[in-house]
Amino acid sequence: MLKIPQKTSKKLIDKAGIRADGRKPNELRPTKIEVGVIENANGSAYIEQGKNKILAGVYGPKEVHPRHLTMLDRMLFRCRYHMAPFSVDERKSPAPSRREHELSKVITWAIEPSIFVERFPRTAVDVFIEVLQANGGTRCAAITAASVALADAGIPMRDLVAACASGKVGGHLVLDLMDVEDKMGEADLPVAMMPNLNAITLLQMDGGLAMDEFEQAVNLAITGCKQIYALQKEALKARYVAVKKAVEE
Amino acid sequence: MPSIIIPIMQQKQVAQAISKGKRLDGRGLTDYREVQLETGIVSSAEGSARVHLGKTDVLVGIKIERGQPFSDTPDKGVLTVNAELSPLASSMFEPGPPGVQAIELARVVDRGIRESEAIAVEKLCVIPGKKVFVVFIDIYVLNYDGNLIDASAMAALAALLNTKMFKYELKDGEIEIKPGYTKLPVKDHPIAVTIAKINDILIVDPALDEEQVMDARLTMTLGKDGRVCAIQKGGSGHFTAQQILEAAKIVQEKSGEIRKLLVKD
């Protein structure tokens, strides 16, 4: 039997405004960030946001390869977003898809404004992001983890970049969409920002929103980013407390 | 390696003009370059359109073929958008498989058409789960002078409005093409408007010299009822929330102007 998916489903959110996984409209998924998880990397972070599990590792500043990409006045900053073949229901080919190419680029654009690239001429910094398990909103979780990994690597930054999506599901504006909400809902609006500078560095959308809904959705996503920002800072502090203890012993 | 000296001088020139409310080519901050449209210029394609946006020149050809639906949308036809940045269009483009710029361009145009539900894909289904029509939208950039997204989205919409659809009948479970054509069912008219930010000033339709010095860009695609269907921020700069809402207002006004140029009714 063919299952024909509907664009909107009543089950995604009930009359009391409770979502399929029991969350309120403006509630984030349970989120955990860990710092310093890859031995070889100069900096690294791991994030679990709901059922998403994502690793980010930073290598650099280092020499630029290939060499002709060297810039005399600034660092070459690159992010690579990649999904493991087993991270989704149907096996994904390990070769980077068009979606992964685009996401690598928009993630690079989302994080680069936070870095003092002009302080590291002729160098490269690479951030490698591996999505181990995906359940909607991976680009945002990836940005959140990558920014923490860069801080762990000691790269000078203007602010952390925190990311969170908002969207419209079953007629309601909601925060931090999971996979079913993204696929069956009416709109998805991922946002990344530097909360201290009020600077939005990633904004994408697909679906349909009236202008006033769009405005509300941007503001809702910003509140999500601010909550994520607090978790990022907590994770970094916890890491330094752990290092300090280890040194003192 | 690109020289860094010329862009710095250029940046000053472009930015100085913009701070005075002018642009190097004489436009106001929210003016588009002149749009020229030709349709139905490739007879081997089911639909085609060529858009000149100032010196930017984009040709879109549409082919329709028989194919299979995706498993998650068994009752819908398939839409595929591809972009080629031909090396004949600019010394900045090189032969080879599509790079990230071409991929982003195709995906942003795709999102506008898909999310606005411009094509009635449900009418392109012949046997659910088995046989549907596939609409291939191929974007060919012929001359590059900035703002490929808006020019390509315009050409894609104009080509869709000009696309003919086969008449067919089912014989023993196979699609048989009959002579004659109908119109491809087009329900909405998505218009993409790109805004660039240069030194905290927003401008519409950045030309290449402006793209090279912009901090960031924001593309919003609006359906004909004014709803927002797709957004893409590009470039390694930022926007404030205030600037995004300001951009949205400009896009509302500009998308109406462009739609009038493309859609005659």
Description:
The complex is a heterodimer of chains A (249) and B (265). By secondary structure, chain A is α+β, with helices and mostly antiparallel strands. Chain A has one domain: GHMP Kinase, N-terminal domain (Ribosomal Protein S5, domain 2), CATH 3.30.230.70. Chain A has 4 helices and 9 strands, in the order E-E-E-E-H-E-H-E-E-H-E-E-H. Chain A has a 5-stranded mixed sheet with strand order 1-2-3-5-4. In chain A, helix 1 crosses helix 2 and helix 2 runs parallel beside helix 4. The N and C termini of chain A lie far apart (64 Å). In chain B, helix 2 packs across helix 3. Chain B is built from 5 helices and 12 strands. Chain B has a single domain, classed as GHMP Kinase, N-terminal domain (Ribosomal Protein S5, domain 2), CATH 3.30.230.70. Chain B is of the alpha+beta class and 265 residues long. In chain B, strand 11 and strand 12 form a beta hairpin.
Properties at a glance:
heterodimer, A: 249 residues, alpha+beta, five-stranded mixed β-sheet, 4 helices, B: 265 residues, Ribosomal Protein S5, domain 2, six-stranded mixed β-sheet, four-stranded antiparallel β-sheet
Give a short overview.
The complex is a heterodimer of chains A (249) and B (265). Chain A has 249 residues and is of the alpha+beta class. Chain A has four helices and nine strands; from the N terminus they run E-E-E-E-H-E-H-E-E-H-E-E-H.
